[in-house]
């Protein structure tokens, strides 16, 4: 716990596209070793992901195309923060845009990272309960299919080939654990 | 399940650094909508991550600096495939390099994605059991601290601020579930 963090001697932008920026960083570790690393510095470094519970056992998943993997996947509503939103506002907006529901009760579960070695990105996982129907137009190229699933059949969900996203799997296990504890 | 995948009309490399490549892709969805997306096409798109169990309840975590988030985090041994390795060889090599152990029993649990909207990356999660002490030199700038943790105290681990990686959280929950089922 008392490690001394590496000293960042230098950083510079080495490549950039419309969406992404890549930064080179020159580090000196506390033992004197020096390394040059690269990391992604955009797209937006912070977002939120909702676990929308329709009832005590039913989560609303969405089916969405992932251009990175070239597959349709079952995932959870998520997106980046927009202009000054707090996590509650962003979570509720994404939920309305992608799953056609708002939530009266929102609980922040965990701030998760993706690949902390070369990405600064974090996503806040939010449990959304006491849902009501309300839609907002999003920027999706096609309407997203909403797929209800029972958390009591979570193992069967995670076996599926169209469920691969680590943050989705982590969020669903966390939610199951929290709901179990609440009712025990 | 019968969605027609978007047609990839065109792809081209729009930015590149030593480590990363960024590809622009022009897509036409089945409803006729067209979009231009960007995605990361390197670093290596496939890797493995081990969940090393020292005994039925003790997992070996490692403490490693994440340059992307500029923090030391508790994580699991992982890395990219090297020259023709299969998942067993890669998992055992990473385990020896990063946690000072080999494993006689390796079980493939799940192929996970990170951010499938703009990354093609996948990591194979491997349960490693029947461990023995053996080290291989890695390319780490400093020796990694190995931190044993009880899976029976997984909730307390996940509450920690230095445990954030979604794939690590997902892998530990999956492992706990599998070991619980094995002994019930």
* The first-level CATH class name of the largest domain in chain A: Alpha Beta
Structural class of chain A: alpha+beta
For the largest beta-sheet of chain A, the strand count, sense and barrel status come to: 4 strands, mixed
Q: Tell me the greatest interface.
A: A-B, 66 and 66 residues
InterPro entries (chains A, B): NUDIX_hydrolase-like_dom_sf, NUDIX_hydrolase_CS, NUDIX_hydrolase_dom
Protein name (chains A, B): Adenosine nucleotide hydrolase NudE
Cofactor (chains A, B): Mg(2+)
Organism (chains A, B): Alloalcanivorax balearicus MACL04
Report on the structure:
2 copies of one chain form a homodimer. Chain A folds into 2 domains: 7-42; 46-182, Alpha-Beta Complex (Nucleoside Triphosphate Pyrophosphohydrolase), CATH 3.90.79.10. Helix content of chain A is 19%, strand content 45%. Chain A is built from 3 helices and 10 strands. Chain A has a 4-stranded mixed β-sheet with strand order 7-4-9-8. In chain A, strands 1-2-3 form a 3-stranded antiparallel β-sheet, with no helix packed on it. Chain A is globular, with a radius of gyration of 19 Å. At the A-B interface, β1, β2, β3, β5 and β6 of A face β1, β2, β3, β5 and β6 of B. Chains A, B: Its cofactor is Mg(2+). Chains A, B: Residues 43-176 form the Nudix hydrolase domain.
């Amino acid at each position: 716990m008392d490690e001394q963090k590496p000293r960042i001697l230098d950083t510079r932008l080495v490549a950039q596209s419309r969406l992404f920026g890549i930064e080179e960083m020159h580090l000196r570790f506390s033992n004197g070793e020096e390394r040059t690393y690269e990391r992604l510095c955009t797209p937006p470094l912070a977002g939120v992901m909702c676990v929308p519970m329709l009832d005590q056992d039913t989560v609303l998943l969405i089916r969405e195309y992932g251009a990175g993997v070239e597959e349709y996947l079952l995932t959870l509503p998520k997106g980046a923060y927009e202009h000054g939103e707090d996590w509650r506002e962003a979570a509720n907006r994404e939920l309305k845009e992608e799953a056609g529901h708002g939530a009266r009760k929102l609980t922040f579960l965990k701030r998760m990272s993706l690949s902390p070695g070369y990405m600064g990105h974090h996503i806040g996982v939010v449990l959304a309960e006491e849902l009501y129907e309300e839609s907002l137009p999003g920027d999706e190229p096609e309407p997203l299919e909403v797929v209800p699933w029972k958390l009591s059949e979570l193992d069967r969900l995670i076996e599926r080939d169209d469920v691969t996203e680590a943050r989705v799997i982590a969020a669903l296990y966390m939610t199951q654990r929290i709901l179990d504890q609440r009712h025990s």
